[in-house]
Design goal:
Layout: E1 8-12, H1 18-27, E2 31-35, H2 39-58, H3 64-73, E3 74-77, H4 80-84, E4 89-92, H5 98-111, E5 117-120, H6 128-131, E6 140-144, E7 154-158, H7 165-177, E8 181-185, H8 194-210, H9 216-227, H10 233-240, H11 242-256, H12 265-273
Parallel strand pairs: 1-2, 1-4, 2-3, 4-5, 5-6, 7-8
Antiparallel strand pairs: 6-7
Helix pairs in contact: 2-3, 11-12
The structure holds 3-hydroxybutanoyl-coenzyme A (3HC).
Keywords: NAD, Oxidoreductase
Domain 3-hydroxyacyl-CoA dehydrogenase NAD binding: 8-187
Pathway: Lipid metabolism; butanoate metabolism
């Protein structure tokens, strides 16, 4: 398969990442189906597309014609069969829980045409942990976007030992068509490059907050002003989701059993309270 054979893309999950990945695909000219089990999430995703595109046109960053075409290219459905049945390329951006991902990959393997590539946008989980739930491990890889996915330029593509050269190449080519800069990792490692580096920073920031050395807001102020990061680690966690920080730490702890991998007390507190960041309008900060 070549990139030219990819006409139809299915994005599974309309959450923080999926809604923007799907819109990015539609903007790049692909017929795109965005699917989620929650109609409410799909309504939000559609609402976002319907307000974002006119905003881009008003800002002079997008032509009216391209905005109209993108809206024509994208559809939203709760029906996985319908969304993935004719897909040439699937990007899974569902919740960061192994059991859910494995079930989804088994379903997608059954539903998607045999030639379709199945990529996961997982933040941490390497694709070999889901590839064996399918009968096409050579067509499974990681394709990891960053939040907000319409803005951040990088995508990490990870070629597992099961992933064919062709799959890695088509995925890299797709990244380029989406206007992204892609790095290809030929060795699987939990968290890939960026999230490993980011977690080192977040872990230290959480340690300092848990110890009462400084508040999350003070730590963010220090990091943005001293290191020039556009956001401090706590505001960034609000953006990417404190639920994601919790689930990924739990996944890591369940496989390592190393107490240092457990979610930090502050993350647990926020998770239990349902204060998951921007998506719940409250995390370390409060949002309108
Ligand atoms: N969705 C879409 N576009 C957005 C957006 C959003 N949520 N937020 C901002 N933008 C766009 C704006 O429309 C604007 O576009 P334009 O310049 O073309 O007009 C541009 O981004 C800049 O926006 P603003 O001027 O409003 O705000 P900032 O200059 O503060 O930028 C930011 C916002 C791009 C989010 C910036 O703060 C930033 O880069 N933050 C760091 C983000 C980051 O580190 N992301 C990686 C997280 S790690 C991750 O995602 C891994 C995953 O596995 C968890």
């Amino acid at each position: 398969m070549k990139l030219e054979d990819v006409k139809t893309i299915c994005v599974v999950g309309a959450g923080n990442m999926g809604h923007q990945i799907a819109l990015g695909c539609a903007l790049a000219g692909f017929k795109t189906a965005c699917t989620d089990i929650s109609q409410e999430m799909l309504d939000k995703a559609e609402g976002f597309a319907r307000s974002y595109l006119p905003e881009r046109v008003a800002k002079g960053k997008l032509s009216q014609e391209k905005a109209d075409q993108a809206l024509e290219n994208i559809r939203f459905t709760t029906n996985l069969e319908d969304a993935a049945g004719d897909a040439d390329f699937v990007i899974e951006a569902a919740v960061e829980k192994m059991v859910i991902k494995r079930k989804l990959f088994a379903d997608l393997d059954r539903i998607a045409p045999p030639h379709a590539i199945l990529a996961t946008n997982s933040s941490y989980i390497v694709s070999s942990q889901v590839a064996d739930a399918t009968n096409r491990p050579d067509k499974v890889c990681n394709m990891h976007f960053f939040n907000p996915a319409l803005v951040m330029k990088l995508v990490e593509v990870v070629q597992g030992p099961h992933t064919s050269e062709e799959t890695a190449q088509v995925t890299m080519d797709l990244c380029a068509r989406l206007g992204k800069t892609a790095v290809l990792l030929k060795k699987e490692i939990y968290g890939f490059l960026v999230n490993r580096i980011l977690s080192a920073l977040a872990q230290e920031a959480l340690f300092l907050a848990d110890m009462g050395i400084a508040t999350p807001q003070e730590i963010d102020l220090a990091v943005t002003n001293a290191l020039g990061h556009p956001m401090g680690p706590f505001r960034l966690m609000d953006l990417t989701g404190i639920d994601l920080a919790y689930y990924s730490a739990m996944e890591r702890y369940q496989s390592s059993r190393d107490p240092k991998d457990k979610p930090s007390p502050l993350v647990v507190e926020k998770f239990v309270k349902g204060e998951w960041g921007k998506k719940t309008k409250k995390g370390y900060y409060t949002y309108e």
